TrEMBL record:
Keywords: Membrane, Transmembrane, Transmembrane helix. InterPro entries: HotDog_dom_sf, PTE-AB_protein, Thioestr_dom. It comes from Ajellomyces capsulatus (strain H143). This is Thioesterase. It comes from the Eukaryota. PANTHER family: UPF0644 PROTEIN PB2B4.06 (PTHR47260). The lineage of its organism: Eukaryota, Fungi, Dikarya, Ascomycota, Pezizomycotina. The chain crosses the membrane at residues 67-89.
Length: 301
């Protein structure tokens, strides 16, 4: 007489939603491409279809891939081969004909640097090569003109001095003999170049025309690559400096202008010894070890 009541889920739309959540309808694995299908489905299916390549397109792709591989691996092999040949080659003895030819070539390359052209065009700068004023007997006893000389080490040190600004710009070449890690200049070589450049400026501020390194601070910012030219710029703080103490600061940049290292130093004139006036040649004397060498030869204790 009475019909059984229908479940509540059949009377409300939420029941259908619940059934769909519990038992989701099965999806067709093959898209419906009939004219009555949704246009979105038909467009997606059409984009998924790949048009076969022609024989000419296959040939062009293979040629392009071969050229790309040749360019990549050829450039890589050329660079590695040059680096290995330079690293494994027997070093030319400093002063030999082969070494002299290499140094002359590096000087010609340096002459074409833009920074060198600008410095030479400025009448306020005076130019000379480091240690040119020293005799051949004196050069072997100095660090950079002796053990570090030659085309594989420090073959070029061109100095540009500005007396008005009390500033020096030195163009140096770092050879492969200065490397520690492959292709990277040793940090000690960088410190040596900075120390000499600092001292070269500091000594010119002393009436005594001599001095030693009292303090040296260096911040290494970017690794220096061997077989490259670098520009060392140093200036003296004349306001802080006195007749016996000089404050100098400077930096090293590569030929592209990227900052590689910065530093500052304090140079002093010793009070414990009486120094003779140093001649013009000794104005290139900079580091502490060089100073000791000059004392033993030219100073009366």
């Amino acid at each position: 007489m009475f019909r059984s009541p229908k479940p509540i889920a059949h009377n409300f739309p939420c029941g259908a939603i619940a059934r769909n959540v519990i038992n989701p309808p099965k999806r067709l694995l093959i898209p419906d491409t009939s004219p009555y299908a949704s246009p979105i489905v038909r467009r997606s299916f059409a984009r998924a279809t790949r048009v076969p390549l022609t024989e000419r397109q296959h040939v062009l792709r293979r040629r392009f891939r071969s050229l790309a591989y040749f360019a990549i691996f050829g450039s890589l092999g050329y660079g590695i081969g040059n680096a290995l040949s330079a690293f494994l080659a027997d070093p030319a003895a400093p002063g030999s004909l082969e070494d002299t030819q290499r140094v002359d070539h590096l000087r010609r390359v340096m002459d074409r640097l833009e920074v060198v052209k600008q410095l030479r065009a400025d009448p306020d700068y005076v130019e000379w090569e480091a240690y040119d004023s020293f005799s051949e007997e004196e050069k072997p006893h100095r660090l950079t003109s002796g053990p570090l000389s030659g085309s594989r080490n420090l073959p070029v040190q061109r100095i540009f001095w500005n007396e008005k600004k009390h500033k020096a710009t030195t163009v140096v070449h770092m050879g492969i003999g200065l490397s520690s890690w492959p292709s990277i200049v040793h940090g000690g070589a960088v410190a040596t170049v900075l120390d000499e450049s600092f001292g070269r400026v500091a000594i010119r501020s002393f009436p005594a025309r001599t001095g030693v390194t009292a303090n040296l601070n260096i911040d290494y910012i970017r690794p220096l690559k061997v077989m490259g030219f670098y520009i060392v710029t140093v200036e003296c703080d004349l306001e802080k400096s006195t007749e016996r103490k000089a404050f100098v600061k400077g930096e090293i940049r590569d030929s592209k202008g990227r900052l590689c290292a910065t530093g500052n130093a304090i140079f002093v004139v010793p009070k414990t010894v009486t120094l003779r006036p140093l001649d013009t040649a000794l104005l290139d004397m900079t580091s502490g070890t060089n100073f000791v060498y000059q004392i033993t030869r030219r100073v009366d204790f």
